[in-house]
């Protein structure tokens, strides 16, 4: 289906959640599901689900609902998860190590190829079976190995410089864990993961629940 309007970021952020729940349904042998049934499982309204999916063609049938496997495959394709991606990580400290370990266990079409750092005590060590390389070799490695995604796990002061080198080398996307919104060319996609934002949102929700509970007890 040809789209003439841009899909909102809110819709895109809900798609991985749809896919994750569909995977569990598929694993349990569920073959079809209605938007109402799906809403009861996932927590969004049936109207919201239909509206989100209609952005891409709908995929459901009146009186039948959605094919679980079919919808899972469609969303995988929409998200670009029907292909594999090669990744490098810059910043092999505690956070970088945790991210690398997650990717190694995830096995979802994202292949970690190398890690880079500036610290001499880290260069040459192993991380999940591959060697941590000198940051000076980053551009050459990305170019030679046709890396798709760069993961940034460095401090705020160095993040933009790393992003500049990754985009110069030709990555298609950056997964950024530095507390800074990066500036990159339009040809490069960026996902900024601000852990503090998520933590602050959690604090808000805790406060909101506490306020609601206090009203109930009055």
From the helix content, strand content and strand pairing, which structural class follows?
Answer: alpha/beta
| Percent of residues in beta strands | 15-25%
Helix content: 40-55%
Report the total helices.
Answer: 8
Give the topology string: H per helix, E per strand: HEHHEHEHEEEHEHEEH
- Number of separate strands: 9
Strand order in the largest sheet: 5-6-4-3-7-8-9
Distance between the termini: 54 Å
**pLDDT averaged over residues:** 91
> Biggest sheet: strands, sense, closure?
7 strands, mixed
Q: What gross morphology would you assign?
A: globular
Low-confidence stretches: none
Radius of gyration: 21 Å
Description:
The protein is α/β, with parallel strands linked by helices. It is built from eight helices and nine strands. It has helices at residues 9-27, 35-42, 46-54, 68-78, 94-106, 138-145, 156-169, 195-217; strands at residues 32-33, 66-67, 85-90, 110-117, 126-127, 130-134, 149-152, 173-176, 189-192. The chain has a seven-stranded mixed sheet with strand order 5-6-4-3-7-8-9, sandwiched between helices. Strands 1-2 form a two-stranded antiparallel sheet. The chain is globular, with a radius of gyration of 21 Å. It starts with 8 loop residues before the first helix and ends with a helix. The mean pLDDT is 91.
